Amino acid sequence: MTRVRALLALLLSIPLLLAAVDAGAQSRIKDIVQIEGVRDNMLVGYGLVVGLNGTGDDLGDSPFTRESLIGMLQRLGVNARDADLDTENVAAVMVTASLPPFQRVGSRIDVSVSALGSAESLLGGTLLVTPLLGADGEVYAVAQGPVNAGGFSAGGDAQQVTKGVPTSGRLPSGAIVEKEIAFELAGMDRVHLQLRNPDFTTARRIASAINRFTGNELATSLDPATVRLKVGGTYESATALLADIEQLPVEVDQPARIVIDESTGTIVMGQDVRISTVAVAQGNLTVRITETPQVSQPGPFAQQGQTVVVPRTDVEIEEGEGNRMAVVPSGVTLNQLVEGLNALGVGPRDLIAILQAIKAAGAMQAEIKVI
């Protein structure tokens, strides 16, 4: 009797477990939207990396490195304009960084450096003070520090080994923010939420979830990419409202789409892809041409004759054996479609052609995107 009760309890708990799985498939609002105006800003600068062990730029082939080095020494009180500089321990680099939103003066950000000239490696180098400019030409950060190279290169006259990209590197927390980008989120009376993957259904579900949670009509879906959020009800600032709604779960809808990368043979299919009833046959035609030239020459002690090369060509034509036509029924799921095509022995390259042919026949209810 006890075992029967335990079995009944287990059966009754299965729907609850399935509901928990469905709930886990939902995504938080903070993971599917971004706040309009809250974004990173790209910074760029030009600098010099010093301290390289003979792996820097050749000053004869990189005049910009030579002029930059002379200019830096002059600012430090050293006149090297007429000197015959022949160092290989300096490299000109482009310095890039991303300034996250709400960064305050004095905070640090990561920096990437990439060689411009003929430098072989930035391993062991140190980046000198480099201003980082924004799109408006203003200086927002200053970078300096040791470079963590992305690889190394070593070798001799007969062999060389290279790992990674030794002409680029990073400076973790290598730049200090000198100027803030003004953005007062707390004083805004309305905020626009931008969907990372625009979709009418998802935008409507986001607005509905926010309105149910707040008990007020604060959210409105304007288009598939934008949800307008008004500050009101019990909320006095946009910051407090966003902090409460960003954890709300929303079921994300996605279009039926197949993404194909023909260069690598990669195929990605969404779960809502459906196929109408269609018959599919896949076959391979292989033509093999083998050249086996033979040498013909006269016999020993022959009075006449010459040695010639006689061509011999063998042509073989093979058609895939065992290939057959299969009927794919209407409304099959993604798993059934993949299993059916795998049963035909279809490889990625042939699968791309089959999917495009099914789409051309009008039997596929999905969009094909080739990248």
At a glance:
It comes from Rhodovibrio sodomensis. With 371 residues, the chain is α+β, with helices and mostly antiparallel strands.
Question: What is the topology?
Answer:
Elements: H1 2-24, E1 27-28, H2 29-32, E2 33-35, E3 41-50, H3 63-75, E4 90-99, E5 108-115, E6 126-133, E7 139-146, E8 148-155, E9 160-177, E10 190-195, H4 200-214, E11 219-223, E12 226-230, H5 238-245, E13 249-250, E14 257-261, E15 266-269, E16 274-275, E17 278-281, E18 285-291, E19 294-296, E20 308-310, E21 313-319, E22 325-328, H6 334-343, H7 348-360, E23 364-365, E24 367-370
Parallel strand pairs: 14-24
Antiparallel strand pairs: 1-13, 2-10, 3-4, 3-6, 4-5, 5-9, 6-7, 7-9, 8-9, 10-12, 11-12, 14-15, 16-23, 17-22, 18-21, 19-20
Question: Would you write up a description of this structure?
Answer:
With 371 residues, the protein is an alpha+beta fold. The chain folds into three domains: 41-149 and 163-177, no CATH class; 184-250; 258-291 and 311-370, no CATH class. The protein is 23% helix and 37% strand. The chain is built from seven helices and 24 strands. The protein has helices at residues 2-24, 29-32, 63-75, 200-214, 238-245, 334-343, 348-360, and strands at residues 27-28, 33-35, 41-50, 90-99, 108-115, 126-133, 139-146, 148-155, 160-177, 190-195, 219-223, 226-230, 249-250, 257-261, 266-269, 274-275, 278-281, 285-291, 294-296, 308-310, 313-319, 325-328, 364-365, 367-370. The strands form eight sheets. It has a six-stranded antiparallel barrel with strand order 3-4-5-9-7-6. The chain has a four-stranded antiparallel beta sheet with strand order 2-10-12-11. Strand 4 and strand 5 (108-115) form a beta hairpin. The longest helix is centred in the first third of the chain and has 23 residues, at 2-24. The model is unreliable at 1-24 (pLDDT under 50). Keywords: Bacterial flagellum, Cell projection, Cilium, Flagellum, Periplasm, Signal. Belongs to the FlgI family. The basal body constitutes a major portion of the flagellar organelle and consists of four rings (L,P,S, and M) mounted on a central rod.
